[in-house]
Amino acid sequence: MTTNLHDIPPLYVASQEFLQNPYPFYETLRSIHPVYKGSLLKYHGWFITGYEEVVAVLKDTRFQSRFPLPEASKKYEQLKNIQSGMMLFKNQQDHKRLRLLVSQAFTRKTVERCRPFIQETVNDLLKQVYDNKKMDVVSDFAFPLASLVIAKILGVPEEDRYQFKEWTAAFIQTIDFTRSRKTLANGTEITRKVLIYFKELIEKRREEPQDDLISRLIQEEQQGDKLSYDELLAACILLMIAGHETTVNLISNSILSLLQNPEQLKKLRSQPHLIETAVEEFLRFESPAQLIARTASENIAVGETTIQKGEQVYLLLGAANRDSKKFMNAHMLDITRSPNPHLAFGYGVHFCLGSSLARTEAQIAIQALVQNTTNLQLSSSNLHYRQLIGFRSLAELPVTFD
Ligand code: HEM
User: Fold this and answer.
1) Residue to mutate, 48, 103, 345, ligand 1, most ligand atoms under 8 Å from C-beta
2) Which residue from 352, 389, 392 has its CB within 8 A of the most atoms of ligand 1, so it is best to mutate?
3) Which atom of ligand 1 approaches the CA of 293 most closely?
4) Is 86 exposed, middle or buried (0-12, 13-18, 19+ CB in 10 A)?
5) What is the best residue among 246, 254, 290, 316 to mutate for testing ligand 1's pocket, by most ligand atoms within 8 Å of CB?
6) Lowest mean pLDDT among 164-178, 186-200, 290-304, 307-321
7) C-alpha triplet 298, 304, 309: angle, nearest 5°
8) What is the CATH number of the domain that holds 37?
9) What spacing in Å lies between the alpha carbon of 353 and ligand 1's midpoint?
10) ∠ Cα 273 140 160 (to 5°)
């Protein structure tokens, strides 16, 4: 990799070469400046690759959530309205209010109650592929697991979850900075379908409440000023996307990291108690969410750099998590690493609400796969990552085992 950004073609960050291994590019960016001003794809702003600098921005609430879509985009109005109602894109009091309403469903204690269901689902999924001695970790294991778990928490009937794969894939493209007019138009079309689906489900739950998150949120909405109908719809869609996308990436990226580091796989097999530190290391090493963004609400200093009011700031979590100023042997996978203060779930007021759920699902899934198989091997040398720069997302991960 060259050390001069001018030598890198402008579309490099959307190329398979970058998607296969973005880390040399991050190093280049950081070596020029950990708070770098420039353009990537069609976006201009500050690209932050230094760990301390990323923390400084995420800690400072004067850096506000980015606008979901360019303000002028009338064509994508429906999509924009839904995104605007999500806590991820809210600030201050509105953010606090929305977060508080759903946070109860994702506390460590509540997640612990899901543990038996997660374990049972993992066992069932493994049983289904066991005789074949092969599977695609993404579509046969990680995706169905994440999908069944979030469906159960939300209260989405199990048989409906198949359509969610297409829906979440379309939505994630509208949030990602690789988005194009085509993906936004597709996202708007999908929004219509998803809205019809959730409106119907909400009406069913209104008539016959169940012990699920949608029924609880409906109660809040009925009480008056805590949650509007549009925010209720936005919350369902946000949780559906969040619950599907990143957890799938965590599980598949982790398995790939183990396959590429067989001595670490061997260590985890012989010392299963390492699963907790191992998952933290997988989160650091191949962070499922690679890039998040903020807007400066006033002129703000970050180290010696001043970011002007209105400027966009892109926080490269995947780069910060491999900053050698913070992590010794940052490019090495070490499943015993401790402490491991990675930023894979973000930092500050928007810190991932689903972190306990994601950790629990990943720990159970990876442990089961590693301990119940022998001779786990990659069955393709040609892996593809989905064309997203905000997410590290394998399209498929075919493996064989005995
Ligand atoms: C490995 C899996 C996951 C990763 C790496 C991850 C990562 C993140 C990150 C980096 C943020 C912060 C975004 C920002 O500051 O702009 C975030 C926020 C969020 N995540 Fe996750 N997430 C994961 C799983 C989940 C799951 C399973 C759920 C719930 C079903 C979830 C729900 C949320 C929500 C609701 C927010 C917004 C929080 C807020 O705005 O206050 N996430 N996540």
Assistant:
1) 345
2) 352
3) 16
4) buried
5) 246
6) 164-178
7) 15
8) 1.10.630.10
9) 5
10) 115
Amino acid at 177: F
Domain residues for 79? 5-400
Taking the CB of residue 91, how many other CB atoms lie within 10 A of it? Answer: 16
d(CA 364, CA 345): 19
The number of folded domains in the chain is 1
Tens of pLDDT along 11-51?
788 888 999 999 999 999 999 999 999 988 778 899 999 99
Q: What is the pLDDT of residue 2?
A: 47
- Which pLDDT score is estimated for 72? 64
Each residue's pLDDT tens digit, 174-214: 889 888 889 999 999 999 999 999 999 999 999 999 999 99
Q: Compute, in angstroms, the gap from residue 344 CA to the centroid of ligand 1.
A: 9
Pocket of ligand 1 (CB under 6 A): 87-88, 99, 150, 238-239, 242-243, 246-247, 250, 288-289, 292, 344-346, 350, 352-354, 357-358
Q: Which residue has the higher pLDDT, 362 or 3?
A: 362
Rounded to the nearest angstrom, the distance between the alpha carbon of 246 and the centre of ligand 1 is: 8
Kindly give the distance from the C-alpha atom of residue 350 to the centroid of ligand 1, in angstroms, as a whole number.
8
Q: Band of the pLDDT at 158, cuts 50, 70, 90?
A: confident
Q: Which atom of ligand 1 is nearest to the CA of 102?
A: 35
